Structures are given as structure tokens and as C-alpha cells.
Amino acid sequence: MCTPEAKLPIGGLILAGGRSSRFGREKAVAEIHGEPLIASVSRVLSAGCTTVAISARQGSAAAHFAIANAMPCLKDAPGDLDGPIAGVKVGLLWAMSQGYGWLVTAPCDAPFLPHDLVARLCAGGQERGAMACTAAGMEPLCTLWPVTALEALSDLREHPAILEVLKRLGATCVGFDDASAFANLNTPEDYARAKLRSG
Fold first, then answer.
1. What is the CATH number of the domain that holds 65?
2. CA 104, CA 93: separation in Å to the nearest integer?
3. Number of domain units in the chain
4. Which of 51, 78, 109, 188 is the most exposed place for a label (fewest CB within 10 A)?
5. Which domain holds residue 121?
């Protein structure tokens, strides 16, 4: 489990650096019943993390959300690999600078995440971290990362799938019963279904 390291504060990171090309607009701030998607994710991470930061492109709506809510806003380092790995890397650097032993990540477009996501990842995590898994498969963006993973990410010279990185690290799978809780809203059709579900 996360102990004894769990005695240290845990950082949370919302991954919101994508361009939302399939969605047609910046999905992080698309609203369901008056609340941006990113706010739902922030609430879940805040339940188990000392501080929640947002990984976002400069000038994006997600970055403005971070500023408006006094949340740390992290941008990818120049020359870093594109994609969520770059966000995780800068998140781990930030977590280390804050004295955190662990970082929990989640995507900005998953408004139905389990409220106890952080607690369960910590309970199931070993020294090498843990990721959420359901009957539908693994959820590598919903992961508990040890800050010691930073060394492995710093050595990357190409962009592997984030799941492959977690497998190399030996991250543990933590089972969740409801696969729909991890649904990502990648398209307008996904968004329309989510609004019906939340109603």
C-alpha cells in the first residue's frame, strides 16, 4: 500500500493538455448541468489529495479554470514528448517540488469517476504505483504514480503508450466494478449521452 509513504501529502493532477479535436471544442470546460467536466474531476481528486493541479496548454480554457480557482497550472516542458506522458512528467516534477511522495492523475473528460478513486488506488498501490482497471480494460490515465517514476519517464526518447510505461514500472491493477464510471467524453455523441445519464 501507499504506507509509510502515504504519510506524505499526495498531489493530484488533472490531464487537460489535449486539443479536443474529435470533440470540436475544448472539452475540459464543456458543462453538464452547469458544471464544467474539469470541475467534476477536480472534486474527486480533492477528496484524497492535498493539492490538485491542472496540466494544460497556456491560454487554454483549462488554464483559465486553474487560474480562476487558484489551482497550480502546469505546462509541458519545451521539447518534451507530446501526449499525456508529458503531462505526467511535469506533474511528477511538481509533486516532487512540493515534497509529495505520490501523484494521482485523472483525465479532464471523465465526469463520473468514483468518489473514492484516490483512496482505493492508495489502498491497492504498491511501491510501483497502481492504475484503475475494470472488466472493460485498464484505465492508465487514472493512476497513482510514485514520484520515483520520474527517472524512468526522463529517459524516454520516443512516445510509448502510457499503458506500456505503467507495465514497465510494474504498476498494480486496482479493480473497479463500474466500467461506465471511467467513460471519457471524446466526441459530441459521448457528451450527449453523458448529459442524458446525468439527468
1. 3.90.550.10
2. 13
3. 1
4. 78
5. 5-198
Neighbours of 159 (CB within 10 A): 14
Render the burial of 118-137: b for 16+ CB within 10 Å, e for the rest: bebbbebbeebbbbbbbeee
**Residues 80-122: tens digit of each pLDDT:** 666 788 889 999 999 999 999 999 999 999 999 999 999 999 9
Contacts of 5 (CB under 8 A, 6+ apart): 101, 102, 146
Closest CA to 90 of 143, 144, 150: 150
pLDDT in tens, 50-89: 999 999 988 899 999 999 999 999 987 766 666 788 889 9
Q: What is the pTM of this model?
A: 0.90
* Residue for grid cell 471524446: 186
